[in-house]
Amino acid sequence: MYDFNKIIDRTGTNTYKLDLREKNFGEADVVPLWVADMDFAAPPEVQSEIQKRAAHQIYGYTIRKDEFANSIVDWCAYKHNWEIQANWIEYSPGVCPALAFSIIALSNEGDGIIINTPVYPPFHSVVKDNNRVLLKSSLIEENGRFTFDFDDFEKKAALETTKLFILCNPHNPVGRAWSRNELERINDICLKHKVIVLADEIHSDLILWDKQHIAFASLNDEAAANCISYMAPSKTFNIAGFNTSYVIASNPVLLSAYRKTQVRLQLNLGHVMSSIALTSAYNLGRPWLKELVRYIEGNITFMDEFLRANMPEITFHKPEATYLTWLNFKAWGLSQKDLKKLIYSQAKVGLNDGSSFGAEGEGYMRLNVASPRATIEKGLKQLLECRPNM
């Protein structure tokens, strides 16, 4: 029903993914398989609702009515088997700003905040830029699959100055959808050491292979009371430009602290289209999302088969969620600098530098498969053409 094979020219739309290629890769014509947005048209049902509002001639200050929160309540029940209440929800201008507000609200300068590396680069900067101490608890790789190092994690959590833990679930870039057992162990450790969990779950709708996302706050009442959750339809429906993020917290103390900080910074109003984009996506985009997930799975399978047939030394573990893949290039025997030079300047493929996710990312690159299959094939063939002699 929906055509994900269609190649859409994004030239002239001031798109981050295209217009920053020369700055980031030194080449303006790399195949852009990097930043986490999709090269697919947003659901036509969402387009229609946005276009209806855009047809009105006035774009003034806009309020969010009950349908904003109600659609989120319905979505969490439908997609995640998570029963929440409308009064637990607050708008945010984005997950990263919301994390910053939470850090400011719930910790002091010099306090420790744990992250699991390799991880989304803004997790590093949102801690350091707010003068908190970054505590890295590295994931463990076992046959390409990443798991928690619970011993190290508890050592970091037990430090007297540790106040917060930023959980990435599903994890970007390694693609793990953390299991209930893993999340329960995280919860036990954080409760034991009085560490508040900030659960970034922005990729939670993009669960693959018929798995189930488990919202951290859905584990039990104790987990919910010790957690703020961060979600958005932006990654799911390719509407990141509309500032459609929100936070969920059943603990009124945590939610109030968050709200006070956001209001104090005068960032609580929102975008004229944000409520329309969110409600139309959640209420009307369900058939589109089902087809999107199947297409992404097809792209991952295609890439897996291509690499096995042509470059078996490049390995990755099929992600359990997200449209992001974490490719291991260590067999090429290149330094990270030389690996990037080969991929960017010779193969002309734009991938995210693995080292930007932490030192553990040396030898890795992140590839975004949310593009028409012909684009993925083009990028892979260009990598093959520049493959070093093995």
H/E topology pattern: HHEHHEHEHEEEHEHEHEHEHHHEHEEEH
Shape: globular
Q: Beta-sheet strand percentage?
A: 5-15%
What is the overall pLDDT average?
97
| Total separate domains | 2
CATH topology type of the largest domain = Aspartate Aminotransferase, domain 2
> Helical residue percent?
40-55%
| Tally of strands | 14
Contiguous runs where pLDDT drops below 50 for at least 5 residues:
none
Strand arrangement within the widest β-sheet reads 2-10-9-8-7-3-4
What's the gyration radius in Å? 21 Å
Please work out how many helical segments DSSP would assign: 15
CATH class of the largest domain: Alpha Beta
CATH superfamily grouping of the largest domain: Type I PLP-dependent aspartate aminotransferase-like (Major domain)
Main β-sheet, in a few words? 7 strands, mixed
Amino- and carboxy-terminal Cα gap: 43 Å
Structural class: alpha/beta
Name given to the CATH architecture of the largest domain: 3-Layer(aba) Sandwich
Structure commentary:
There is one protein chain. The chain has helices at 16-19, 21-25, 44-54, 66-80, 95-106, 121-128, 150-157, 180-192, 221-225, 234-237, 252-264, 274-284, 286-310, 336-346, 373-385; strands at residues 31-32, 89-91, 112-115, 133-136, 140-142, 145-147, 162-168, 196-200, 227-231, 246-248, 324-328, 349-350, 352-353, 364-368. It is of the alpha/beta class and 390 residues long. The protein is globular and about 60 Å long. Helix 5 runs parallel beside helix 6 (121-128).
